[in-house]
Amino acid sequence: MNPLLTRVSAFIATLGPVGKLPMPGTCGTLCAIPILYEIRQLAGILPGFSEQIIILALSLLSFWIIGNALYILQGKDPQEIILDEVIGFAIAMFGMPFNPLVIVIAFCYFRIFDILKPLGIDSLESMPGAMGIMADDIAAGALAHLATSLTLYLF
Known about the structure:
Radius of gyration: 15 Å
Largest sheet: none
Order of helices and strands: HHHHHHH
Number of strands: 0
């Protein structure tokens, strides 16, 4: 593995110094908000690109980045890797109105599901490598999306 590529991957996977902060998962999810705003802006100006295509591409790229980062950041799911939080929250917010109330609702649901890992989400962490790191956040994001949609529908 190329040492420079590994270091760059680790930097991206940890969102630079953000992964070293206290409560890195929450900090990573907060960092996702401006990233998602830019994704939506980009989807609006690039012909043929949509929010779902960009999020899918970033998700696939994130598997590769996290896999490379694991050469430096040892462990099953190093806490400082927070790129998975960005992808999970992107799924939670997919297609949702981008306003403060919806962001707060989706943020709370995502963090709850990511921390508690209900409905078998915890078992996804047993998958090897980047797959295990990403899978639980993708599932938490999907649950948060459903819970946010239901909340918006009911209220």
